[in-house]
Amino acid sequence: MPCLNLSTNANLDGVDTSSILSELSKTVASLIGKPEAYVMVVLKGSVPMSFGGTQEPAAYGELVSIGGLSPDVNKKLSGSISAVLEAKLSVPKSRFFLKFYDTKGSNFGWNGSTF
């Protein structure tokens, strides 16, 4: 179950977050090689955030997955996710960090149990 959790200081009022969530969900599923039915995307806006000493548009994300991550996949995910944030929320690629976690199924709870 890949989970992409994104926080940004961008204001999401009036933004079509549905299209952003959909695009990110499809991207994560495709690049990790998991069914989209298991992908979760969380997008939080208007989060107080400073990057490089300024409060210009910025974002931080964490992507947790049970397998499917590798240096090559992570690079593609970073590029694709940052491109969406830049195009849809005006967050420059240079003001976005993304941390990857490859975890075991026993460390992921779902449906009242673990994977």
UniProtKB/TrEMBL annotation:
Pfam families: MIF (PF01187). Signal peptide: none annotated. It comes from Carex littledalei. Transmembrane segments: none annotated. Belongs to the MIF family. The lineage of its organism: Eukaryota, Viridiplantae, Streptophyta, Embryophyta, Tracheophyta. GO terms for cellular component: extracellular space. This is Macrophage migration inhibitory factor isoform X2. InterPro entries: Macrophage_inhib_fac (IPR001398), Tautomerase/MIF_sf (IPR014347). One of its GO terms (molecular function) is phenylpyruvate tautomerase activity.
